[in-house]
Amino acid sequence: MLEKKVSIIVPLYNVEKYIAQCIESILNQHFKNFELIIINDGSSDSSVDIVQQYVKKDTRIILINQENSGVSATRNNGLRRATGKYVVFIDADDFVAPDFLDYMLELSDQYDSDFCFSQNAFTKIDEEQIESDDIHTLSSDQAIALLLSPRVIVGCWNKIYRRSFLVENDLHFSTSLFYGEGLNFITRVADKANSICVGDRKVYYYRRNNETSATTSFNIEKMRNGETALDRIRQEIDSDSQEIRDMFCLHKALFSLGAITRILNNRVKKLYKSDYLRWRKMLRENTRKISFSKNVSIYRKVMLWGGIMPFFNGAA
How far apart are CA 210 and CA 286, in angstroms? Predict the structure, then answer.
């Protein structure tokens, strides 16, 4: 039990509406040997007041205050303070099932893995649990391709990391990235890991309807930074299988389609014309590259070509 201590790192920034549910879900874990490190990244709402009430009640909760530095620096601060054998990240506007830590540790124990994750998460109200679980190992190439694919929701959460592995390989979040930083981190982790285990059970509740989340609000600088994050991934990972190349092109195509759709929906095409044209070109080029790939489903190909057709017809 003592050897399996888990450090739970939660970045905190203006989430007064959600933080109590997040903390309660962690305190209700079946597995009790954890430290909860909450890093306040300069919140201006009542988030800190809420956390302080929990700190008074449970000595496992550690509140760290810092000047606003961004989510990457915040998570890195948490990593520096962590003392557990394992590390997990939970976003403050999400919450976890009571067996979250149990399941993450089960994945790690099954194959003595440095890095483990579930392919699935709860994303809707009253969503059902999977009927059967398939726990197995992946090679670095397989894991990177899977993390780049649409099969897994992007993020550093819903995963467990052996802390000594992160330290030995100097794996941390890039402070120059504030959109796509999670994908950059997990692909580098997968690239370095000797053993990677994946399962299917849903133990993490990912909140899609938080309007203040970086993944739902539109900001052109976030989109540009997301493009930088993707380019950085291609430069930094050592693996280069055909499946990784195909999934990288698919990810860039989907990112481009999402970016130009947001620009059109927000009616700012003229304002960000150079970005719009660059992403439109990126969409076309990457869709062409995967048109005959066996690693990309027909559904994805049809969806992407359907997104491109209006450009040929002059409708966008």
Answer: 30
C-beta separation of 114 from 161 below 8 A: yes
Domain ranges of the chain: 2-205, 241-312
| pLDDT of residue 210 exceeding 60 | no
Q: Which residues have a Cβ under 8 Å from the Cβ of 107 and sit 6 or more positions away?
A: 113, 116, 117, 118, 135, 160, 197, 198, 199
Distance CA 174, CA 165 (A): 17
pTM of the model: 0.93
Amino acid at 115: F
User: Dihedral of the CA atoms 24, 15, 116, 200 (nearest 10)?
Assistant: 70
CA 274 vs CA 167, 224, 280, 281, 309: distances in Å: 40, 11, 10, 11, 20
- Alpha-carbon span 72 to 245, nearest angstrom: 26
Asked if residue 30 lies in contact with residue 102, where contact means CB atoms within 8 angstroms, the answer is yes
Higher pLDDT, 249 or 239: 249
Going across the sheet that includes 136-138, the strands are 61-66, 34-41, 6-12, 86-89, 159-162, 115-118, 196-199, 136-138
Section 190-212 average pLDDT:
89
- The answer, yes or no, to whether residue 315 has pLDDT greater than 80, is no
CA distance 48 to 260: 37
Q: Stretch 114-119: mean pLDDT, rounded?
A: 98
Q: Name every residue whose Cβ is closer than 8 Å to that of residue 169 and which is 6 or more positions away in sequence.
A: 192
250-268 pLDDT, tens digit each? 999 999 999 999 999 999 9
Instruction: Determine the topology of domain 2-205 in CATH.
Output: Spore Coat Polysaccharide Biosynthesis Protein SpsA; Chain A (3.90.550)
pLDDT given for residue 125 in this prediction: 84
